[in-house]
Automatic annotation (TrEMBL):
It catalyses: N(6)-[(R)-lipoyl]-L-lysyl-[protein] + 3-methyl-2-oxobutanoate + H(+) = N(6)-[(R)-S(8)-2-methylpropanoyldihydrolipoyl]-L-lysyl-[protein] + CO2. The branched-chain alpha-keto dehydrogenase complex catalyzes the overall conversion of alpha-keto acids to acyl-CoA and CO(2). It contains multiple copies of three enzymatic components: branched-chain alpha-keto acid decarboxylase (E1), lipoamide acyltransferase (E2) and lipoamide dehydrogenase (E3). This is 2-oxoisovalerate dehydrogenase subunit alpha. It comes from the Bacteria. Its EC number is 1.2.4.4. One of its GO terms (biological process) is branched-chain amino acid catabolic process. InterPro entries: Alpha-ketoacid_DH_E1_comp, DH_E1, Oxoisoval_DH_suAlpha_N_dom, THDP-binding.
Length: 411
């Protein structure tokens, strides 16, 4: 006999804590105090460190001091290098965003507020290790000294575009810099990274892989397939979830962020998980170092949730004022990664406001010089890769159809 429901069924549609016009409210966040989370041994079984998927690894306190067991105790020169790379990344972003508004490029995506993630991790790992990034890890290339003008050539889609017009402007590819070609399809980079890491281990090589995915893209099947393979085969890979609170225009609750932490998704796969303050350069460094050691000693993959905030629009096609409070980024309780590392260096007596100002001016000049070099070749529509390049690098030996098509085009 069919039993009627006692009340009508309904669906819950998650809503963020604030919409345009609201006062930003982060009171629902549970943030551990700096230094409060213990650092387990790298050999700790995932079952015995499940709490780390719900805690938040932090090193820098409100006074800029490094505290607690996760303090990586970096030397001042390394800290200054990291700070300058973050400053340069932000200066590059600002100029390229303006270039879009000037009609010089068709598209751009900034990483404002997330610079500590790619910069710290790019500095830790070797360039021979392979990174499988999203479109917000430009700091990985910049921290490793990739030519800014070459990045701009791709952004402008000009005649010297290293991708020859085959990718969106910000989807870089640089094997020599440990930067695998960015995919426009959400989530595909994660199984690619796991597969690359498995191949490295299968060959008995010594290189590991690292990948990044946004909070929204964790809802893609590719993410979960990759975690299964990473766990079963103990692939030497670091799996980063960049929880920057917002996908394109939907907040992280749509992907399950209100039900649990994104780091806790690792538990069901038997993987160790760390949840880390993504705006704390030292915390990002320490957690990555922990995961790197685990991967290099054949103990398998680690999932790291990097808790941060997307300060800029999702892309130049996005207007965040339509879906969140305008000043929400300014009220983010974990602050700005550049200012926090600056404060730490000043507290150590290794930096000053004057040095900060000089570093910012130098970054602007570096970007300006690269811009002149690239724009001399051409911006969007002024120059483009040769038409003949569309027929190259398709087959190892040219197929007869390619030959015929080239003849028809006249190249």
């Amino acid at each position: 006999m069919k039993k009627p429901n006692t009340q009508p069924l309904s669906l819950r549609v998650p809503e963020p804590s604030g919409r345009p016009g609201d006062t930003p409210d982060f009171s629902h966040l549970k943030l551990d105090a700096p230094g409060a989370v213990e650092r387990p041994e790298v050999s700790t079984a995932p079952f015995d460190m499940r709490d780390h998927a719900f805690r938040l690894v932090r090193v820098l306190d409100d006074d800029g001091k490094a505290v607690g067991p996760w303090n990586p105790k970096l030397d001042a020169e390394t800290l200054r290098k990291g700070l300058k790379a973050m400053i340069l990344t932000r200066a590059f972003d600002d100029r390229m965003h303006r270039a879009h508004r000037q009609g010089k490029t068709s598209f751009y995506m900034k990483c404002t507020g997330e610079e500590a993630i790619a910069v710290a991790q790019g500095m830790i790992l070797n360039r021979e290790d392979m990174g499988f990034p999203t479109y917000r890890q430009q700091g990985l290339l910049i921290a490793r000294g990739y030519p800014l003008a070459t990045m701009m050539n791709q952004i402008y889609s000009n005649a010297e575009d290293p991708i020859k017009g085959r990718q969106l402007p910000i989807m870089y590819s640089a094997k020599d810099y440990g930067f695998f070609t960015i995919s426009g399809n959400l989530g595909t980079q994660v199984p690619q990274a796991v597969g690359w890491a498995m191949a490295s281990a299968y060959k008995g090589d010594d290189k590991i892989a690292i990948t990044w995915i946004g909070d929204g893209a964790t809802a893609e099947g590719d993410f979960h397939n990759a975690l299964t393979f990473a766990a079963v085969y103990r692939a030497p890979v670091i799996l980063n979830i960049v929880n920057n609170q917002w996908a394109i225009s939907s907040f992280q609750g749509i992907a399950g962020g209100l039900e649990t932490t994104f780091a806790s998704k690792a538990i069901g796969y038997g993987l160790p998980a760390l949840r880390v303050d993504g705006n704390d350069f030292l915390a990002v460094w320490a957690a990555t170092q922990w995961a790197e050691e685990r991967a290099r000693t054949n103990q398998g993959a680690t999932v790291i949730e990097l808790f941060t905030y997307r300060g800029a629009p999702h892309s130049t096609s996005d207007d965040p004022s339509r879906y969140r409070p305008g000043d929400e980024h300014e009220k983010w309780p974990l602050g700005d990664p550049i200012m926090r590392l600056k404060q730490h260096l000043i507290a150590l007596g290794e930096w000053s406001d004057e040095q900060q100002e000089a570093a910012e001016k130098d970054a602007v000049e570096q970007v300006r010089a690269a811009g002149k070099e690239s724009e001399a070749i051409g911006t969007l529509g002024q120059s483009r890769p040769s038409v003949k390049t569309m027929f190259e690098e398709v087959y190892a030996t040219e197929d007869w159809r390619i030959t015929e098509q080239r003849r028809e085009v006249g190249v």
